[in-house]
Prior knowledge:
Number of helices: 0
Strand content: over 45%
Order of helices and strands: EEEEEEEEEEE
Amino acid sequence: QVQLVESGGGLVQPGGSLRLSCAASGRIATSYLMGWYRQAPGMQRELVATISSGGNTNYADSVKGRFTILRDNAKNTVYLQMNSLKPEDTAPYYCNLVQWSWGRRYEYWGQGTQVTVSS
């Protein structure tokens, strides 16, 4: 099993910044994909950003140029630096880890951390 613990959410004014962290622990494979998703009320959960073990990144178009995903492999931790935040970024943000073992795909989710962008 893998456990994901998120931190760093909160209330921020439009144009402000927040940094989310997600620490993974447990039975973690050598190669895995980590990322962040969010789910606004009444909406489907959507990808925000992902990063591979090798550092390849992928971003939603809505956050490109504003958000940066970073990873510390030694600490099994992923960060999401969010700048120029907008009210439409408001949502709970969920950490995600995907890994493969013996040909099987395993996916894990954190409990979520709330990000609220409001004046």
